[in-house]
Structure formats: C-alpha cells, structure tokens
Amino acid sequence: MPVHRCQIQIIPLKGEDSDQRRNLMNMNAIKKIFFLLLLLSFVPANVLAAQISVSFDRNPVSVNESFQIIFTANDTPDKDPDFTPLEQDFEILGQSQSSNSSWINGQSSRTIQWTLNVMAKHSGSLIVPELKFGDDVSQSATILVTEATANKAVDTDDDLFLEVEANPQSPYVQSQVLFSVRLYRRVEITQAALNEPELGEAVIEKLGDDSNYNTRINGVNYLVTERKYAIFPQKSGSVTIKPLVLTAEVVANSRPNFNGFFNSQTTRTKKILSRSVTLEVKPVPATFTGQHWLSAEQLVLKEEWSGDNQQMKVGEPLTRTLTLLAKGTTVGQLPELNVGKIDDQLKTYPDQPVLREQKKPDGLIAFREEKIAVIPSKAGFYKLPAIEIPWFNSQSQKIEVAKIPETTITALGTTKVQPAPAVPTAPTVLPPQKIETVPMTQPQQQNIWLWIAAFLAAGWLATLAYFLIKRPAKKPVVEKNELEIGLEASVKNLKKACADNNAVAAKDALLAWGRQKYRDGVYAASLGAIAAESDARLRDEILHLNRVLYGKGADQWQGKKLFQAFVENKAREKIAVADDDKLEQLYRL
User: Fold this and answer.
1) Among 189, 320, 424, 444, whose Cα sits 20 to 30 Å from the Cα of 391?
2) Residue 277 near residue 179 (C-beta atoms within 8 A)
3) Angle, helix 503-517 to helix 536-549, in steps of 10 degrees
4) How far is it, in rounded angstroms, from Cα 388 to Cα 336?
5) Which of 290, 367, 266, 294 is nearest to 326 (CA)?
6) Is the pTM of this model over 0.85?
7) Beta strands 363-376; 354-360: pairing state
C-alpha cells in the first residue's frame, strides 16, 4: 500500500510575526543588561570610587594659628562629607566648596574642593583621619602643630606691628636663609606698602604668594599676612638685613557722618618698622676641596640614554642626558656637568643647557639639564669619565659627593652584506637569422660626415667660450671694519688683564667687548648682563669676577680660568654656526 507524505506549513496571521521579533529583541536586550551588571559586580569598589586627597596651606603651624585643610576629589563623591570626626582635635572656623571642570585632548575632567579654615586645639603631630563621603573615603594626613609663643614681644604697636625671622642666622656663604615677614593687625587697613629686604652682596628671591591666617596673642586675635624670601649671602662675615618699613592707611574707628548720603572712610597714615636682623655668615670650610663651592639642602645627580649604549652603531648618534637637581640653592650656583675629556674617536655635540628654578614655600629648587649627542666614528669600547659633584649638605653640615660612575659604551661596526657570486649559465644559442643589408649611397655618406664635423666644431667653440668667461678674477682685498677691530682689541686687552690677574682691567675689557658684541646696550650694561648671555662655565667665571670686585679679594684674583672659559665660549659659538646644517637631524632626538 503506498504511503503518502504531506508537508504542513503554518502561516502566521497578520501582525504576529512583528510581535515575535519584538519579543526576541527585548529578550536579547535583557540578556545584555544582565551580562553587563554581572561584569560590574566583579569590578573592585575602589576602582569606581572617587579619589579624595588631603593637603594643607601651611605645615607646620602654631597651636594658636588658623590654617586650611583642603579636600580634593577627582570626581563627584557618593555623598556630602561628614567633618564631625575633625572636631576632636580641630576647631572648625568656616568652610567653603568649589569645583573646576576642564576639557583637555578630548577628555573631560572635574575636581571638587572643600576648604576648611580650622585651628588646632592642642599641639603635637595631629592626624586628619579618613572621612566618609558616603561610600567614598578620603585619605588621611598628618600636620605638625607647635606650642604657642607666650608673651610675644610687641615693640611697636598693639594694633599693627611687623615681625621678622631668619633661619638659620649663622649660614655658610651662598647658603639659603629663609627670611619670613609677618604683618599682625587687628584694625582695617587700606593701600598698604611694604619695602623689600635689603642686604648688600646677596641674592634675594621672593617665595610664592602671601599667606593669610588668624592667630591669638595674649588672648587677642590678630589677622596675619606672611611673606617669605630666600636670601643667599655672597660673602662671609657679619651682615645686617635692614629694617622693613610698612606704610598703610588705617581706617579710623569713628562714628559716621550722616549729613550726606555718601560718606568716605576716615583714614590715618601709619608707618611702622621691623627690627633689623644680623647674620653671621661663615666662609667655605677648609675641608672642602672641590673647585666649585655648592651648598644645598638636597642634591640629586643622574644620567639617562636615549638608547642602548652597549650596542651603539658607528656613525649613528645616541643622546646622553645629565640632570642635576638641588634644593636650597640658585640655578646660577649649579656647575657644568659635561666637562670630562673623552676619546677623539667619540664625537660629542652638546646642546644648550636647560636651566630652571622653582619657588616653593620652603625654599628654591634649582634644575640643570644637559643633553649631549654622542657619535662613535670607529667600532670599539669607549669610556666616559666619572662625574663627581662635591657639595655641602646644609642640613647635616657635612661635605658629600654626588657621583655618576665611569661609563663604558660599546660601538658596533656596520656589517655589509656581500652579494652572492653569480652562477655561470650556458650561453643561449639562437638560430641563425637572415640579415638584409641595404647599400648606402654616396650622398648619404657625405651628409653624415658633414653633421659630425659641425658637431665637433660647435663643441670646440663652446669649450673656448667657457674658459674665456670663467677666467679667474682678482680677489678683492677685504678690509676689517671697525666692529671687528674693536672686538679684537677688547679680546687682546682681556687676555692681558687675565694674564696679569688684574680684576679691574678684566672688567673693563669685558664691558668693552660686550658693547661691541651686543649692540643693544641692555646686554652690555653690567657683568651680570653679559654673564646671562654666556654659556655655563663663562657665566660662572664672570659672576665670580663680579663678586671679587666688590669683595676684599680683588688683589688675589686669578684670571687664567676666566680667559680659558672665554676662549671655549667663542669656540662653541663657531662650532654651533658651522654645524647647524649637518647636525640638524641630531636635535630631533
């Protein structure tokens, strides 16, 4: 019996197909959301939390001084902060909140700050604990609170007076002295003017912006404005910082005049003086044997290479970067780093040094960076001499040496690939072909010889004309102008003054050279202006001459180093001009 098979097809009604597809899409979306939530559940909570740091406007502070605790979040925290735990050790005088948004390189960032004006309840090393911002938590921080100064001496006016402080009071020459000026007032003032500290033979730098805080003296509240300076005495002996003078308009505490609608404030001019401060500056210790005296609180010396100096290639450059970072000194006191003699087969091209200073509340930070392009001209092993910087640690009062040990570099020769020898192949034998020759007629042969003769004659005439035109003319005699004559005369005078160790004559020769070299009078106004336009070594020698001229050792000055640095400076200028084109690629490293 035959078997019949039938195929049944279910055709959905109108609208049923779209509903099924919509339900399927909704299910897929629910699955994706569930999968995303599952992934987020494995992400650590501290990755998503806002990072909240803590800082202070001053540290340390006195127990009777107000200061600021600053909380900074890199994103919006979970909730508003709870500052209640701070009340155990600090009295909260006020608080404020600010936010800042920025868009840099296609990325947005936002910071939120909470600034608390507080006063410590007791002295000691106080801890700002971790505070909760909802589920987010801030970092902890420590501040040193010192005891209050009892019965502060006020020798001018109880309502308005100045206080000055120098630390240390017995520094070594060219060492940093932190000089603080504080204005105490409990009256309102306007249009106040305060002069700068004055000290002969010293470098004085203002440190940052003024800071304001409240303090309590003998039960009386004062508003304090503090300004800091870094002072570097340039000669030893007893020196005195002159008193500072403050001139201010003090608002009078009188009843207002109601006769007019607008009433101007009544003020009186007040002038107050601070006390003078005497420093006992000590000379360079006899135990210091370095050629360049350098006093600092901290010092770091390091080197970096732009590539592997053990696999250098002949003719290809690598850049060596030498960095000197010092705290508590000026950038003018940092010595030159790349001064050692190296192998003649190792060519070096130093770049202009990068000099920077950063002014912090606790003093200056000086930075010097030197980049040197090193090119080996022959394969082999080369040694770069060790770099040693003796310096005096003003914190430990000890002489230390920052050192980069002797560096060995390896230069590899360039290997050329020899071409493979050609394999002889059998000559290809071509079947003989029939070559048809067309006989040349007599008129055609004559035309060819006429063209050849004309071509040779034209070439001979062109050659003769070339030599007649290019006949060498007499070179004109170039006479030196007045500028070159003046420069040569000033250099000659400088050489003689340095040979005679005559500091005054050397100064006059340098100024004369500067007037000829720099037509703009600004650069030749003083030795300091000429030093600023010179390289590091010549600058140091000119500044040394300047200090000697205004000190007591002018008759003991030795001019050999100054003229040697002067000659080297001129040589570097010539090399820089001559190598601008061929060394252009080196400066791209």
Assistant:
1) 320
2) yes
3) 130
4) 11
5) 367
6) no
7) antiparallel
Angle separating helix axes 560-578 and 536-549, nearest 10 degrees: 150
Q: What is the average pLDDT across 243-272?
A: 71
Cβ atoms of 270 and 216 within 8 Å: the answer is no
- Whether 160-254+265-281 and 295-412 share one fold: the answer is yes
Q: Which residues pair with 531 in a beta bridge?
A: none
Pairing assessment for the beta strands 407-412 and 380-384 based on DSSP bridges: antiparallel
Tokens 């607008």 map to which residue? 262
Decide which of 421 and 568 is more confident: 568
Identify the DSSP state of 172: B
How many CB atoms within 10 Å of residue 444?
A: 9
Domain 48-146 belongs in CATH node 2.60.40: yes
In whole angstroms, give the CA distance from residue 326 to residue 302.
12
Amino acid at 185: R
How do residues 527-568 score in pLDDT, each as one tens digit?
Answer: 877 887 887 778 888 888 887 886 656 667 888 888 878 887
Q: Would the pLDDT of 448 be above 80?
A: no
On whether the 160-254+265-281 domain is CATH 2.60.40.740, my answer is yes
What residue type is assigned to position 234 of the chain? Q
Around Cβ 136, how many Cβ atoms within 10 Å? 21
User: What residue spans define the domains of the chain?
Assistant: 48-146, 160-254+265-281, 295-412, 483-584
What does the alpha-carbon distance between residue 565 and residue 567 come to, in Å, rounded to a whole number?
6
Poorest-pLDDT segment among 3-17, 137-151, 219-233:
3-17
